[in-house]
């Protein structure tokens, strides 16, 4: 079976629920006064997935949509009217108008990556809870600020790692924690797939329906070229980190959930420059050294049994055996015997009601959900550090207590960036 899964296929499948990521509760009538009033900010492919998922939850009322591309906004408003006939949801081109509304309880954020943190922080300050897409933030400093503001304003946050809700990941965690392969000393992660060749820059006047200056927001100013906007923005380091950043949280999640790597000591990355005008890595290999654990990321499957035909995966090596998994499958090997489960290890983790329902439940109970911000920040931080090592082309030493590189001013300069003053909103 070919396990290769690119991002467009993932969006298509997850939208249809084909991966089993969105588990809906029993449909029941909920009094309007008991409904969570939600607004969706960012209405590209994943933003429309958010809208589709939450529109099916009886405890949710979608009251506002926002996108700074008028075409995206108009098409999403029409789609919402098809999903929820009679909806009175209002459309906005500036998310700040949504945050000004006192009648909105929570927002989902599916903007380009470089806007994730500021929108979430401003939402916390406005008294809104947040369901935010991956990655958590653009850099390390943003993640720190998000956690501080979440705690200060006593908000709820769920990272959109939809796969986290699936039974397979739950069971992998139980098996690893239950000692199926003993103490884990090495983990290998990978995601295949090359970014597109975006060709030369095609600078032109932005479309009249797009607020390009706001789209750039805190990022450095650039003349408009279609390659930098919407879906392909992710291949530019001003906004994202390529295929690596796009998929890190999908598969690193199972590692942080199952073994909680601690005390990162060093990170060393090498990679291949992309074709065309993009600058995020075409491929990347990263070696991380944690306390008692070595973790490796590659853009090709590692040379281990069962990995070759999987486009994404995690391979855990323990002192008693190995465990290989991807989104929907797993293989445990102990003493040469390959199995899909170890029945003697009990099911100890409560299964998710669905990633979006888990967020709704947490908002109502005022508790933190499964993919909460504190957890997501620890899981996301090594991703940022790997890209910094790639950009500098050298191994970097890390102080986990101070969350800074050791005696390296240049590397520490990449832990945050100065926003364009007009769009420094927090």
Automatic annotation (TrEMBL):
UniProt domain Gfo/Idh/MocA-like oxidoreductase N-terminal: residue ranges: 36-160
Gfo/Idh/MocA-like oxidoreductase bacterial type C-terminal domain residues: 204-424
Organism per entry: Larkinella bovis
PANTHER family from the UniProt entry: BCDNA.GH03377, NADH-DEPENDENT DEHYDROGENASE-RELATED
Higher taxonomy: Bacteria, Pseudomonadati, Bacteroidota, Cytophagia, Cytophagales
Family annotation (Pfam families): GFO_IDH_MocA (PF01408), GFO_IDH_MocA_C2 (PF19051)
Annotated TM spans: none
Name of the protein: Gfo/Idh/MocA family protein
InterPro entries assigned to the protein according to its UniProt record, in alphabetical order: Gfo/Idh/MocA-like_OxRdtase_N, Gfo/Idh/MocA_oxidrdct_glycsds, Gfo/Idh/MocA_OxRdtase_bact_C, NAD(P)-bd_dom_sf, TAT_signal
């Amino acid at each position: 079976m070919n396990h290769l899964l690119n991002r467009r296929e993932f969006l298509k499948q997850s939208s249809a629920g084909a991966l089993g990521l969105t588990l809906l509760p029993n449909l029941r009538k909920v009094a309007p006064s008991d409904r969570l009033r939600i607004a969706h900010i960012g209405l590209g492919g994943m933003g429309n997935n958010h809208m589709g998922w939450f529109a099916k939850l009886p405890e949710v009322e979608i009251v506002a949509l926002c996108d700074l591309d008028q075409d995206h906004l108009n098409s999403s408003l029409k789609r919402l009217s098809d999903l929820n006939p009679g909806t009175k949801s209002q459309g906005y081109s500036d998310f700040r108008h949504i945050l000004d509304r006192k009648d909105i309880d929570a927002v989902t954020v599916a903007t380009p990556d470089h806007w994730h943190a500021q929108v979430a922080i401003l939402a916390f300050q406005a008294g809104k809870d947040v369901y935010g897409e991956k990655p958590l933030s653009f850099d390390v400093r943003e993640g720190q600020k998000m956690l501080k503001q979440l705690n200060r304003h006593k908000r709820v946050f769920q990272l959109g790692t939809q796969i986290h809700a699936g039974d397979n990941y739950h069971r992998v965690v139980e098996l690893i924690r239950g000692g199926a392969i003993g103490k884990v000393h090495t983990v290998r992660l990978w995601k295949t797939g090359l970014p597109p060749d975006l060709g030369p820059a095609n600078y032109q006047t932005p479309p009249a329906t797009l607020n390009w200056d706001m789209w750039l927001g805190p990022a450095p100013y650039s003349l408009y070229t279609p390659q930098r906007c919407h879906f392909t923005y992710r291949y530019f380091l001003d906004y994202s980190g390529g295929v690596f950043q796009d998929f890190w949280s999908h598969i690193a999640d199972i590692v942080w959930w199952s073994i909680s790597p601690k005390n990162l000591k060093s990170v060393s990355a090498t990679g291949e420059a992309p074709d065309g005008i993009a600058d995020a890595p075409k491929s990347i290999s990263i070696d991380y050294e944690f306390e008692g654990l070595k973790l490796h990321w590659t853009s090709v499957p590692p040379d281990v049994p069962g990995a070759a035909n999987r486009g994404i995966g995690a391979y855990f090596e323990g002192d008693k055996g190995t465990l290989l998994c991807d989104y929907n499958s797993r293989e445990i090997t102990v003493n040469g015997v390959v199995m899909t489960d170890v029945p003697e290890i009990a099911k100890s983790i409560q299964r998710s009601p669905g990633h979006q329902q888990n967020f709704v439940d947490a908002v109502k109970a005022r508790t933190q959900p499964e993919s909460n911000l504190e957890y997501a920040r620890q899981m996301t931080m090594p991703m940022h550090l790997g890209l910094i090592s790639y950009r500098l082309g050298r191994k970097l030493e890390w102080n986990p207590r101070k969350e800074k590189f050791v005696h390296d001013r240049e590397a520490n300069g990449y832990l945050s960036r100065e926003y364009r003053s007009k769009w420094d909103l927090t």
